[in-house]
Please model this.
Amino acid sequence: MKQKITLLAITCYVLAFTGLYAQRKRSNKQIEKLKTEVAAIVENNKKQSQVMVDKIFSFSELGFQEVESSKYLTGILSENGFEIEKSISGIPTAWFATWSNGEGPTIALGSDVDCIPKASQYPGVAYHKPIVEGAPGHGEGHNSGIPMNISSALAVKKIMERENIGGTLLVWPGIAEELVAAKAWYVRDGRFDDIDMCIFTHVGNNLGVSYGPTRGTGLISVEYSFDGEAAHSAGSPWRGKSALDAAELMNIAWNYKREHLHPLKRSHSIFTDAGDQPNVVPSKAAIWFYFRDIKYEGIMEMYAMANDMAKGAALMTGTTMTSKVLGTAWPRYYNKVIAETMYLNIKEVGLPEWSDADQQLAKAVQTEVNSEKTEGLPVKLDELGLPVLEPISGGSDDIGDISWKVPTVTLRYPSNIPGLQGHHWSNAIAMATPIAHKGVVAGAKVEAMTIIDFLLKPDLMQGAWDYFNNEQQKETKYQPMISESDMPPIYLNKDKQDQFRSELEKYYYDETKYDTYLEQLGVEYPTLKN
Model:
């Protein structure tokens, strides 16, 4: 009897997974025709894409402060029939936008929206020229990702409605990615429990996708705070217990430890509180660390060592110590089946046709920042990215947490200039120009075509989960680095954004008066050094 029940359960599962698609099976020729059509819809809507890209660029909002960006983007999605859920995981600027056409897979489309401190920059100008001196700016290019996802989602939605294709589209933002401080909370709070696959998108300088373990690290972001006793620094310093001494001692101890860290580990820190004024022994001080490694175990090992050093620093100074996790990111691992399917669409779409003006700007910026790359924008597609066999250290992205929850890839699209240093004003130069606009359209076509593939070919979705369960998780199982009591640090960046918001508001893009943001700013494209 038990065997019969088991067989019945398996049969029901298979029927539930494949039944809908069996009823609406389409030939490969029909599917390819729909993919061609969805790409054409994206192309026809490129004006809307351009406006969205330029609008988010003009808001220039740091992590957790993406107020105008979130209001604008959710407004567009709401107008197009998406249901909006706000304040995801207790983050005021986080939201999920969902549209469903009945039974079928749920496909999540994510990208980041926050910008970089002190990266304000006129677009299309091939040298440093801030819009607002010292203000934030899109020196990574996160202004382009959600507009790209919306462009593809609206095109796919049109096809799904007309062809009665079942499924659900979910558009979501990576809030405060530069602080790696949202996606792990989404996962912890179950926001991806019922998702079938995730396509994440990130600005790059070519059309590309990879699978398996990728270059870069995971990390844990931790702030250590010390409490001491204030005293007059000249009158009675012996009565003080310096919290700053404790923070500095921890910093010194960690710097000595660097000699003994494996080369694949990386760490960085800043003081977030260093006292008030020299004549007062600091009663409070804090230091903020990122601890990076290529593996979860290595990250947690560094974290444990740092905790011991913080305790030791407190003991040495007679102070007390507390710590707070401000963000985490697992090392990324991408899905082979999704990546291979997407790469076929990348080859079909190809790179944009760059104008002479596009190439002039790119080469001038490369020269301005002394880049090793001087050939301008790419004219040849990257190959499909294969699993990294020899680990390479580098940056992190909290999409890693989601990649260990559901089958995931990151689509990189060509909206920026090769050879720039990143997190820098030069990376903002292309991000409200035809370079960014063309790259977003190309990426949206690839994404939309890939969504159609997975909606209409159930064997692809099953293959993606087979790879996820049997290959990706063969040796590694996801463990969250945050606890149930850890809260996202939504207070971060408020003071920085408040300092500049009123001045930045003067430069918000008004698409009702100007065709492009370049036109509003009076920028001749491209503007080069004399």
User: Anything to note?
Assistant: Confidence is low (pLDDT under 50) at residues 1-23. The first strand starts at residue 83 and ends at 86.
